[in-house]
Amino acid sequence: MDAALLTPEEMGAADRATIAAGTPGILLMERAAAAVAAAAMRLSGDGPIALLAGPGNNGGDAYAAAALLKSAGRAVRLFHLVAKEGLAGDAAIAAGAYDGPAETLSSFRPGDFALVVDGLFGAGLARPLEGEAAAAVDRANAAPVKVLAIDLPSGISGATGAVLGTAVKADATVTFFRRKPGHLLEPGRSYCGEITVADIGISDDVLDTIAPTTFEAGPALFQGRLKVPADAGHKYDRGHAVVFSGPAHQTGAARLAATAALRGGAGLVTVFAPASAVLVVAAQLTAVMLRRCDDAAELRERLADDRLNVFVLGPGFGAGDKARDFAQAVLGAGRRLVLDADGITAFKDEPQALFAAAGEAARGRPGGEPALVLTPHAGEFKRLFPDLAAEDGLSKLDLARRAAARAGAVVVLKGRDTVIAAPDGRAAINASGTAWLATAGTGDVLAGIVAAQLAQGTPSFEAAAAGVWMHGKAAEAFGPGLIAEDLPQMLPKVFAGLCG
Ligand SMILES: NC(=O)C1=CN([C@@H]2O[C@H](COP(=O)(O)OP(=O)(O)OC[C@H]3O[C@@H](n4cnc5c(N)ncnc54)[C@H](O)[C@@H]3O)[C@@H](O)[C@H]2O)[C@@H](O)CC1
Ligand SMILES: Nc1ncnc2c1ncn2[C@@H]1O[C@H](COP(=O)(O)OP(=O)(O)O)[C@@H](O)[C@H]1O
Ligand SMILES: [K+]
To answer: At which positions is K(+) bound (predicted)?
Structure first.
């Protein structure tokens, strides 16, 4: 459960369960404040610190942190949105224990301080910031002062990462027990700065009843499910992935995906190319194999070889009838399919046909495991799920989850904050990668890496999450200046980090 991300509601349940089991809420608040105070000391040098306190427990944390900083001899001033008398519960207790002066938020001038600690709103943010709170946030953002956010930058939704009204641009954020989706989803992620997770004495056991369904895509989520080559294994144990190539003038994307599938750990990889492209492809492949495959009838013959267990369709393929026929043939044969790029676009006028084939294929698999993995970027997503894309107020998590449930597929909704969602409601958010991934062909490589994990028998959700994370790690390992071709070569480094 180390990978779990908790919605604000789930975090509230974790707090309540801990309190019900005997830990007073004020003790949790004091521990949270101790972590905030330690971070504040680190970030402020010896300079004066402003603490902004809101009307709820986030404000309570600010009061308790102010008390700790003050008793450590630091120059602190506290600015409140609501006077002490207006606070309730643990926040009122914390405010009562703070013996320094409290000023109104309207008198807060960020230029007077080395650090601003933002305790206006956290998990309880319920509506857009306005009035004094919004004005104070805007003043802090406009000033060259460091900001430390308590739990979440005020104005960021912990559930969705959305900015409600305006939001604090933090240099650092201290959150408690587990991160929230809003720490990883954009734009929230960009508002958080460096995130630390403080242990405030909530036991991991509370997660058994909360049963979170949102995770960070990373080794803690998938490591137990990844296959590593067995000592006495042979290549067929690691699966045989097939990548479909487009016509002669459009073979690069398939070759990128095929190389990535091989480097990603598939035992064998074959490119299926139309006759017109065979020579072009042959001239550029070595360990990757090549076969001709011109039409759906020929594909069905080839599908008789059940060692071919995973297919990648879309990169450079063309978005016409042939893409639809091939995808239906693969799913009809019960094989797993990574559908990307043109393969997705091909179904824009009849998405139901794809979803029906995916549903049928999943029903034939052990445990109803999804056979289809869709890897759209936002534009491709919109083609397949136009109504979802047009609906107001859906977060990227909501979009991917709703799409996965509808399609009976694992949906990988790409971008800086790629979300991977399964039809059963699980979702993962990826935080690996760099902006250098925004370059042509990196999506083709991702399709190949995901296919490699599927080929080895990893379940579809974990395979997709692992592939996305590895792809990002490969980009980090290469560093600035990468192009798509560089990514597969970095995978050995990523595996070395994973497998030791
Ligand atoms: N015992 C606990 O439950 C613990 C809670 N902790 C802190 O408590 C926070 C959550 O506390 P709360 O649930 O009280 O929530 P918040 O303190 O985030 O805010 C809730 C309050 O703000 C008001 N509000 C919401 N949006 C507003 C807006 N846009 N403008 C004006 N007012 C608005 C609400 O009516 C409510 O009074 C966490 O973020 C964390 O910092 C920590 O102290 C750890 C322990
Ligand atoms: N700013 C960014 N930060 C991190 N990753 C990114 C960023 N922009 C794009 N990516 C990733 O790069 C890849 C691009 O894929 P895609 O849009 O399909 O490109 P192409 O079709 O050119 O291969 C995806 O994995 C996406 O998540
Ligand atoms: K905050």
So the answer is: 58, 118, 154
Closest approach atom of ligand 1 to CA 11 = 3
In angstroms, the first-to-last Cα distance of the chain is 22
Atom of ligand 1 nearest to the CA of 121: 18
Count of CB atoms situated within 10 Å of the CB of 121: 32
- Side-by-side strand order, sheet with 372-374: 4-5, 214-217, 427-430, 419-421, 410-413, 372-374, 336-339, 308-313, 240-244, 268-273, 289-292
Q: How many residues does the chain have?
A: 500
Picking from 199, 174, 168, the residue whose alpha carbon sits closest to that of residue 41 is 174
Quick one: pLDDT band at residue 500, thresholds 50, 70, 90? Answer: low
The whole-angstrom separation of Cα 98 and Cα 199 is: 23
CA 101 to chain centre: 42
- Strand pairing category for 146-150 and 194-198: unpaired
- How far, in Å, CA of 410 to CA of 369, rounded? 10
CA of 26 to the centre of ligand 1 (A): 14
φ, ψ of residue 48 to 5 degrees: the values are -70, 150
Kindly report whether the peptide bond that precedes residue 247 is cis, defined as omega within 30 degrees of 0: no
- Name residues contacting ligand 1 (CB within 6 A): 15, 25, 28-29, 32, 54-61, 90, 121-129, 133, 150-151, 176, 200
Q: Which fold is adopted by the domain 4-212?
A: Rossmann fold (3.40.50)
Supply the pLDDT for residue 499: 80
Residue 443, CA distances (Å) to 133, 417, 447, 467 in order: 41, 14, 6, 11
Ligand 2-lining residues (CB < 6 angstroms)? 341, 377, 414-416, 418, 433, 435, 437-438, 440-444, 446, 471
Spacing, Cα 90 to ligand 1 middle (Å) = 11
pLDDT of residue 226: 84
Does 375 score more than 80 pLDDT?
Answer: yes
Going by C-alpha positions, the residue among 124, 108, 131 that lies closest to residue 159 is 124
Sorted by where each begins, the domain ranges of the chain are 4-212, 219-499
Burial of 230 (0-12, 13-18, 19+ CB in 10 A): exposed
pLDDT digits (tens, 9 = 90+) for 23-51: 999 999 999 999 999 999 999 999 999 99
Answer yes or no: CATH 3.40.1190.20 is held by domain 219-499.
Answer: yes
Q: Is the pLDDT of residue 298 over 70?
A: yes
As for the ipTM of the complex, it is 0.95
* Ligand that comes closest to the CA of residue 26: 1
